[in-house]
Amino acid sequence: MYTDIKTILQKAAENNFAVLATSPINMEITRGMIRAANKKKAPIIFLLGQNMMRQHAKAEIIIPMIKMLANEYSAVPIATCLDHGNDPERIMYAFRNGFSSIMYDGSLLPFEKNMEETKKIADLCHQFGMGIEGELGHVGIAANGDEKDESIYTDPSDAATFVSYTNVDCIAVAVGTAHGEYPHGMIPHINFDRIKMIKDATNGMPIALHGGSGSGDENIIKAVKSGINKVNMVTDVFVHCTRKTKELLADDSKIPYMNLMMEVENSVCDFISHWIDLTGSEGMAEKYHAVDKMGLLTSKSRIDDGE
Q1: 229-286: per-residue pLDDT in tens?
Q2: pLDDT per residue over 25-43, tens digit each?
Q3: What b-and-e string marks burial along 43-55, b requiring 16 or more CB atoms within 10 Å of the CB?
Q4: In terms of CB atoms within 10 Å, which end of the chain has fewer, N or C?
């Protein structure tokens, strides 16, 4: 069933679990991810970044495929979300091509400006029945060591003001993770107390942890227990696919390409299943069934029709 992040994450916050948010860039990865969600009976969120769509995963191709598979696996809530949108042209592109949700990233703007710009996008999203995620604090780049810079962490008091003013459905926070790959052997230190403080300050609203890749299983589990409801993981699945492809070719350099892709898809299914376990969302798809019977899960907006 195709829905939005507001619908998915409200249930996650109410029931103290998180939902995996990850990126599909082709058919095999997308099907592997949805098969995992179906196997685990868990909701899932698909992220597509601005540059990702420019370089390869065009929304005109990926979004219709996700919608088709969402209808096929109708018992599993599935949402799409523009990830770290800050380019007006790309945001409108996402609107035109059937995304169900927008993550607007104004984290590099001054606080007041971030609130103003985020509110504009939130008002627009809600007008069309779409979910909206904002970011406060700044989730930097792992290669730069940004996860150690506590000056860019999210302030709980500011988070309360931000959420109240913008009316976002979810807030992405900076609490010690970063995007990309960490140096070999490094696992980031996550400030779990900061997560709890933000959760309390925002009256239990959904909170997103970006930069989940490389954070370590125990950290993810503890972050969810501390109040995280959306776990973004992209780098790790791409690294996994690369490694699996190399392994398959090393075992059989003459493997037919279709077989290669089928094996990668199966491997993605197993890999994503493990991450669903970490988020605590296994079996949680059942909590959305009552909502779906009232006709509230499937987006009814013009955007859903690609208009």
Answers
A1: 999 999 999 999 999 999 999 999 999 999 999 999 999 999 999 999 999 999 999 9
A2: 999 999 999 999 999 999 9
A3: bbbbbbbbebbee
A4: C
In whole angstroms, give the CA distance from residue 208 to residue 231: 6
DSSP letter for 203, please: T
189 pLDDT band, cuts 50/70/90, is confident
| Catalytically active residues, by annotation | 83
What integer pLDDT is reported at residue 133 of this predicted model? 98
Task: Provide Rg for the chain, Cα atoms.
Answer: 18
Which conformational region is residue 100 in: left (phi greater than 0), alpha (psi within -120 to 50 degrees), or beta?
A: alpha
Question: H or E stretch including 257?
Answer: helix 257-279
Sequence-distant (≥ 6) Cβ neighbours of residue 43 within 8 angstroms: 8, 11, 12, 19, 37, 76, 77, 78, 79, 281, 284, 285, 288
Determine the pLDDT at residue 300.
41
The CATH classification of domain 2-305, taken from the options 3.20.20.70, 1.10.10.10, 2.30.110.10, 2.30.30.240 = 3.20.20.70
Phi, psi of 198 (to 5 degrees): -65, -40
Model confidence, pTM: 0.91
The helix/strand/coil state of 178 is coil
Condensed to tens digits (0 to 9), the pLDDT of residues 197-210 reads 999 999 999 999 99
Residue 297 φ/ψ, nearest 5 degrees: -80, -35
Distance in angstroms between the alpha carbons of the first and the last residue of the chain: 20
